[in-house]
Amino acid sequence: MSRRTLLIVRNLLSARFPTRSITYMPSPGDGSPRPVTLIPGDGIGPLVTDAVEQVMEAMHAPVYFERYDVRGDMKNVPPEVLESIKKNKVCLKGGLRTPVGGGVSSLNMILRKELDLYASLVHCFNLPGLPTRHDNVDIVVIRENTEGEYAGLEHEVIPGVVESLKVITKFCSERIAKYAFEYAYLNNRKKVTAVHKANIMKLADGLFLESCREVASKYPSIHYNEMIVDNCSMQLVSKPEQFDVMVTPNLYGNLVANTAAGIAGGTGFMPGGNVGADHAIFEQGASAGNVGNDKLLVQKKANPVALLLSSAMMLRHLQFPSFADRLETAVKRVIEEGKCRTKDLGGNCTTQEVVDAVLANLE
């Protein structure tokens, strides 16, 4: 059956059997507009955050943005930005350039540490209408966000010799494991895989695994297994459908999430966010390496899909599920129809053309 025929059948069925999600009963006052801190970021960041703003306005979503211009080459996050996020509890962020070397700290890391955003979540999945090498990919990568190799504990012992410390604690390992299993439980996921290198780093990664096992014992309905990170990389590119939820220390999770995103079709449409006990920042899930792509910026052809889907995650986080469903459905329809795609997805559309197509598909 051709794609056109499938679309016709789907439209006929939806017309004959209209569907409505289960009623969400809000508490009084839940519809009040919520402030969200907005950091457009560097490079293509303003392009894709503007896409989100247009869609939110068209949906009349109950959110409004407090905009702050932050650049990746700043030495620190401006105090007023941190205060805004602490007040609003939620932030939407475009990509920030991370300096390579030179002793300048990553603002992304500063934000995570200052707000204790200890859990990073990236959802990597197949989208209907976008052909990939593997089908049935639906992986959620949850990584610890505040320690490990990213603790930033480095110093020069003597000229020409640098020491970088990997820090793993029981407290941080246990809470990221709890978050992963809680996520799996709340989202009807069946399996959690802990990714590690405890065969070599027996104390550090051994402590991480010990914490995961303790938490796993409290969730008997969820299957738990462990996988060494190098074997995990091979399994990801050969049989990605075997994975469900993955929980990892910081560095491994960064690599695994980007690999999974590439397998599922690319980083341009993988949503994600960083969350802690009190605050959350939503952004493109996998690597925002194209943030400094001047050609995309000049041509205005950056892919806004990842941030649009991340903003749908944000709407659910804010308890606005119907708005999230409308946005996500519109984006998926645009991808499935295949008429309007940016270059990374095999098309040649501009950012604005993708936005216009999403707006046209909003219900």
Describe what this molecule looks like in 3D.
The chain has 363 residues and is of the alpha/beta class. Helices cover 41% and strands 18% of the residues. The protein is built from 12 helices and 12 strands. The strands form 2 sheets. The protein has a 10-stranded mixed beta sheet with strand order 2-1-3-12-11-4-5-10-8-9, sandwiched between helices. Strands 6-7 form a two-stranded antiparallel ribbon. Strand 11 and strand 12 form a beta hairpin. Helix 5 runs parallel beside helix 6. The longest helix has 17 residues. The N terminus is likely disordered. This is Isopropylmalate dehydrogenase-like domain-containing protein. Its main location: mitochondrion. Belongs to the isocitrate and isopropylmalate dehydrogenases family. Keywords: Magnesium, Manganese, Metal-binding, Mitochondrion, NAD, Oxidoreductase, Transit peptide, Tricarboxylic acid cycle. It is found in: Mitochondrion.
Our estimate of the beta-strand percent is 15-25%
Radius of gyration using CA atoms only = 21 Å
Give the topology string: H per helix, E per strand.
HEHEHEHEEEEHEHEHEHEEHHHH
**Count of runs of 4 or more consecutive helical residues:** 12
Q: How far apart are the termini? A: 27 Å
So what's the oligomer here? single chain
Got a strand count? Answer: 12
Overall geometry comes to globular
Question: Biggest sheet: strands, sense, closure?
Answer: 10 strands, mixed
* SS class: alpha/beta
State mean pLDDT (0 to 100 scale). 89
Helical proportion, percent range: 40-55%
Identify the strand order in the major beta sheet: 2-1-3-12-11-4-5-10-8-9
Which residue ranges are poorly predicted, with pLDDT under 50 across at least 5 consecutive positions?
3-9, 12-18
